[in-house]
Amino acid sequence: MKKSKPSFLGKKYLYTLILLFVFTITFIPSHSFAQDPTGAKTGTLADIDTSAVKTLDTISKAKDSSTAKLAEHISQLASTVHSIGDADGHNKIAINIMWTLIAGFLVMFMQAGFAMVETGFTQKKNVAHTMLMNFLIYAIGMLGFWIVGFAIMFGGSLNPATLGGAPGVSSHEVIIHLFGKDFGIAGTAAYFLNSKVYDVGVFTLFLFQMVFMDTTATIPTGSMAERWTLKSFIVYGFFISMFVYPLYGNWVWGGGWLSALGTNFGLGHGHVDFAGSSVVHMVGGVAALAGAIVIGPRYGKYGKDGSVKTIPGHNIPMAIIGTFILAFGWFGFNPGSTLAGGDLRISIVAVNTMLASAAGAIAALFYMYIKGGKADPGMVANGMLAGLVAITAPCAFVTATSAVIIGAISGILVILVYNFVDTKLKIDDPVGAFAVHGANGAWGVLALGLFADGSYGDGWNGISGTVKGLFYGDYKQFIAQCIGTITCFVFVFVVMYVFFKLLNKVIPLRTKEADEIAGLDIPETGVLGYVD
Amino acid sequence: MKKSKPSFLGKKYLYTLILLFVFTITFIPSHSFAQDPTGAKTGTLADIDTSAVKTLDTISKAKDSSTAKLAEHISQLASTVHSIGDADGHNKIAINIMWTLIAGFLVMFMQAGFAMVETGFTQKKNVAHTMLMNFLIYAIGMLGFWIVGFAIMFGGSLNPATLGGAPGVSSHEVIIHLFGKDFGIAGTAAYFLNSKVYDVGVFTLFLFQMVFMDTTATIPTGSMAERWTLKSFIVYGFFISMFVYPLYGNWVWGGGWLSALGTNFGLGHGHVDFAGSSVVHMVGGVAALAGAIVIGPRYGKYGKDGSVKTIPGHNIPMAIIGTFILAFGWFGFNPGSTLAGGDLRISIVAVNTMLASAAGAIAALFYMYIKGGKADPGMVANGMLAGLVAITAPCAFVTATSAVIIGAISGILVILVYNFVDTKLKIDDPVGAFAVHGANGAWGVLALGLFADGSYGDGWNGISGTVKGLFYGDYKQFIAQCIGTITCFVFVFVVMYVFFKLLNKVIPLRTKEADEIAGLDIPETGVLGYVD
Amino acid sequence: MKKSKPSFLGKKYLYTLILLFVFTITFIPSHSFAQDPTGAKTGTLADIDTSAVKTLDTISKAKDSSTAKLAEHISQLASTVHSIGDADGHNKIAINIMWTLIAGFLVMFMQAGFAMVETGFTQKKNVAHTMLMNFLIYAIGMLGFWIVGFAIMFGGSLNPATLGGAPGVSSHEVIIHLFGKDFGIAGTAAYFLNSKVYDVGVFTLFLFQMVFMDTTATIPTGSMAERWTLKSFIVYGFFISMFVYPLYGNWVWGGGWLSALGTNFGLGHGHVDFAGSSVVHMVGGVAALAGAIVIGPRYGKYGKDGSVKTIPGHNIPMAIIGTFILAFGWFGFNPGSTLAGGDLRISIVAVNTMLASAAGAIAALFYMYIKGGKADPGMVANGMLAGLVAITAPCAFVTATSAVIIGAISGILVILVYNFVDTKLKIDDPVGAFAVHGANGAWGVLALGLFADGSYGDGWNGISGTVKGLFYGDYKQFIAQCIGTITCFVFVFVVMYVFFKLLNKVIPLRTKEADEIAGLDIPETGVLGYVD
Fold this sequence. Notes:
Three copies of one chain form a homotrimer.
Chain A: H1 11-27, H2 50-60, H3 67-120, H4 127-154, E1 173-178, E2 181-187, H5 200-218, H6 220-223, H7 230-253, H8 261-265, H9 277-295, H10 316-333, H11 346-370, H12 377-392, H13 400-424, H14 433-451, H15 475-506, H16 513-518, H17 521-525
Antiparallel strand pairs in A: 1-2
């Protein structure tokens, strides 16, 4: 190698480069500091209101102290303060909108994480198919949510105060009256993000809530992987994003009846779910369970003799990196759910989120070691995801130690539920979607009803006072959590089970046996996922 | 497995762990709330100006109402308000700089997305080579832009008001006079980010614009993949980052002549391109086309009998994850182009961006189904990218519905153009770089000229009033867009075609036939991309 | 394919879709603009304090100019200004907390980058094992840091002013007295993030510092890869996160003795390390070196005849994408270390960070070309990482040109050190962890002592005046940097060497020879990383 003289770059080029640097550093004038290299002087009152600078300078140097002059100055001061206060308020809302958008971007990126986890934990012969489902759901869900989902979910409460309150926007919620109480059922505004809601606050809310919906919608692609026809999947994608997710979401977050269990029936603050253990994860996990039952197990998964075959994932690195991406995106998921960067509780939320994820992973690890097993990367990753799912509801309401306990329990729960579903119920859920999102989603909302420490949540769902769980004295909050959990399971399971059964009659859910055995990439996508 | 007693971690360890938790939660004192767990009390006037707190308290409790005292208090109030206003202005600029930087970070991450898309869609035997080009361009482009590119592009307008305006910094633009008008051609300040521009605002602008340039520079690595010598590629990298991209960029964003079509010739707001459908994507896509023509098709791509061979990508999961990363980074690309977190239009921009991406993917999917084909993941991914490219120019100026329409058209356009270039023109563009970035870049700027709804852009390019497209009554804006588009194609194609032709004489663009057939990893990088 | 009429989606579906769009855009009422599509009117004084709006309006329109009335108005103005100032201060801290959290999220994501770089650069037979170590360290380190690490490192300085200053929180540092001076050794507060530190500012600090620690802890997984038992690794993870990293970290960042070299001995500003070239990278790199020595080289790496075998990495794309993720995360690492988005120096920091990374990569590339070699992607990637490590300490204190020079030197240094360790010292460090993090960590802190230009750092470590390096006139600063560097090497090397030696007696560090040869995935994790 050394013999052939380098033809392209020789030593003289290096010397030229070095000389260039020396020249640069030597002859370019040293700092004049005419500019602002520290940034301390950048951004002043002049960036808000140049006339205010002049007014204030004039007033502070005024010599005339006649009452007429003083009155004039006071009046000028008042308008100037008003203008500064307006800029201050604009900064406040800008902080909140920036925070919510950036958090939403992180949540959107979780789609890549789901795609990697699911594809890594399934078989090589189906990678293009599994990837494509995870890819398409982002686009399908988004359009479904844009068309009608967002209108159903948030049509009744489009104007969160943290995002500016959008004064010109009218919200509308369908309400039914039962037992002398109002039960909000569904919103009916903001279809297609039409011109009546053409507002920066509403659009911010849409972006953040859209990516949440997509998380739900992508979960069943894991439990039904390796045997689901793309065409029935596409119909499913529109259905869940347009109706199922938005309805339950409306009941909890959109002003619907579960959020009113406090005001209507005195049950704590109603069903409280900070960032979606139930609204997002349990809905997705229960839909995943219904789908896995209807579509049936993969060929070869369960023997006629009752044997259970483990079908190993084809790519552990892909699944682990996917898990990291999910854990990363969760920092948008949970802390972003304040819809306000100015609500500094975000730091508590973020720390609780990561502590629970670590506790979930380590609890799963130690549990496996204690059982005499090895450190299965799949189970450790699922332990972390379980911790994240479980802390999603209570993250804003509990102490760091409680977050660790909640996470640790979820890390063991996910293994127990996975094994129960897989070997006892004999429901084939390739990536453990129900164990991770369904079971731990339920555990998360219940954990809130146990561990909420009363340090946060004053005024939540219109109830004054902070949110307290059973361990901190409010057993009624725990009851509200139970009602929310049961409602979620029953509503989602029934609707999705019926939906999948009906859909199966129109467009078969299941790919052909020969295709499934040979691999779905060519039959469903026309290309091979991996080409040598 | 169960026989061997676990030696490392037994049940007693678990019990210890549990006891530790119980101990922790029990004996550590419960919250004193002496601190601020909600964050509501964190951050007060004292964090800005401690003396102001004292002054204001004194004044509000003052008993003496002599005019002398009142005058003194008014004067003190005025200075205090000034100080608070300064802090307010600093917050405003901090919000803008944070936003621009974070958006820039997201755009930088798109380099990983490009690397994955291009490598996934090409062959296994060239992965190290394709990856390396995508990696090196980040570094090469950055240094080229630092040396002279930024100076040419923004030397004439270094001080955006949203980033503080950098009062000590002098901008300079080379202007030529024709037909009694001024035509800005190129900036000439800020070479090497030297000490004259050592300013926080200028550096913020540099970071954001640098990552944009790198997006352009990386696009031709897709169209010329699998046959390009690294050494000629390195020269290309410096050339496009130092001269070609910055020049066109100057004309549109740096105060150059295309941005002055409005002030000079009454054509709407001049050529308007919010985030770079033309400046970034079309420049890259047209350069990619010129390069693909000069370097010629891969061996075996086109048969002597006129047959066209499809060379499948080797790794669909890699390409799909890369697409997700690009879609994620685009949330920096478009919303960041306000250069201001305080410009709350960012939420409209972000929502339009994602809606167009979804519409592009779904339109491509449905188009393939209608044509009787299957859901090719490559085309669906390109549909999403096409939607993103097309919405990049108009994202800030159109409604959500228009964004969906623009995206849907781009999803079909990308397939038509790809097939036309591939089978009619017989130009071998392995990843469809021209179809995605070139054709849809053009469509994006033209779409702005059609769909801009007049709700935003007051004062853009020095023209008062908002930006309106043909459908909303301003046909002159559409003419300006056409001029910008044609200029982009002609300028970039001619310069890059000539450049590649000349470069080819000095350093051959094309790798040796034998190397290309065997794979470029060993000949070009010395290592194999994948080792078993 | 074309023969079979598409059963699912036909042309009529497309027409329906098009009609739907036309309907949408035509019949939905055009903008009323009752809302705020530009966002310019969103966020006003009313979002802060509705009564202030009324007060100010009343005052500015007042007719009564009696001194009593004027005095009343002045008093009201003073309280209103106070309230606006409080909101302003809250915005300021919110900006800082948001910035620090988002930066921390980016740093957390670096874990995925490390996992990919290390796994990509090692062998296919160990991928599940290498991935799992990188995954587990995130969780293990986090719990260790939560239990005691954070308390040791920051227990003595829990209240950074930029994060609100947490007035109710008491810090405590263990101090020893020597030569009539105080030497801070370790903090002793905030174990388990207990209720005494239940504060939004403290939790923000914890999150940011936790992810920094995890970076350190993950570095030795690279040097000890492909032969390390998981069980000893787990013990290591707790040890370094609980004790070693926090102690050195306390000395530099937590108010400990190295930070007091300025106040105690007049050595500049004491040991200055902006974002952790020494605290994070050198600690990790030196621990990696100690571990690599104790664990010994991989079987087959060094022949008995003195030959050195190159064991190529199995997946270059994985390693390159990992490098991009690291470079992306570094934008959190360095700019986030202001702990303040309102410290606008963040833009200088970010630009310096990326310029050094580019210079490192390009210097490595040109060095290899000059030596007559090829563009080894591994070395180019390590060149970029070396540039990032080296600029981490000086990023806030140097000019852009100095950043390029520092980066360029590091890009060559990493190759020289890697070769020296690999072929002269015959220490087997599979991914060059010491060369990248150890050697360049040292170079980074020394470079600060040379290139700091005196434009920033007024008051750093309690010393008034800015930070200046040797080239700018302060040789004592360089001495302080040398002391910090030597301390880091000696302390970490000795402690970790002894620790690994002792640990090896309790739980063998090294996997069995047969397992190492066959691959560690099954023996250590129970599953194969890749399944065909």
